[in-house]
């Protein structure tokens, strides 16, 4: 499995400046091989990681699962 390291702050600024989602970027990275995307802070410390699946179908499943979990966490804060 290939590892890809991304500086989180730069990545999310890029998404904001291009008015796009991380899921769209992830979909463009799919090539039939799983990849581990490692998000780093500005001091090169690991913040979190994500295993990019090998298919668009699996990516869409991950996106739906993420959206559901995020909505549950947000509703728990209120």
Write up this protein.
- The protein is α+β, with helices and mostly antiparallel strands and 78 residues long.
- It has one domain.
- It is built from 3 helices and 3 strands; from the N terminus they run βααββα.
- A 3-stranded mixed sheet has the order 1-2-3.
- A hairpin with a 5-residue loop joins strand 2 and strand 3.
- The longest helix is centred in the C-terminal third of the chain and has 22 residues, at 56-77.
- The chain is globular, with a radius of gyration of 13 Å.
Key attributes of the depicted protein:
single chain, 78 residues, alpha+beta
Strand order, largest beta sheet: 1-2-3
Poorly predicted runs of 5 or more residues: none
Number of domain modules: 1
* Mean pLDDT over the full residue set: 93
Question: What is the topology?
Answer:
Elements: E1 2-7, H1 8-18, H2 22-29, E2 35-40, E3 46-52, H3 56-77
Parallel strand pairs: 1-2
Antiparallel strand pairs: 2-3
What is shown here, in short?
By secondary structure, this protein is of the alpha+beta class. About 55% of the residues lie in helices and about 25% in strands.
């Amino acid at each position: 499995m290939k590892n890809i390291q991304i500086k989180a702050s730069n990545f999310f600024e890029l998404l904001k400046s291009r008015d796009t989602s991380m899921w769209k970027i992830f979909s463009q990275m799919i090539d039939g091989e799983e990849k581990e995307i490692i998000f780093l802070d500005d001091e090169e410390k690991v913040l979190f990681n994500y295993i990019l699946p090998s298919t668009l179908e699996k990516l869409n499943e991950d996106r739906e699962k993420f959206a559901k979990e995020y909505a549950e966490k947000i509703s728990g804060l209120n």
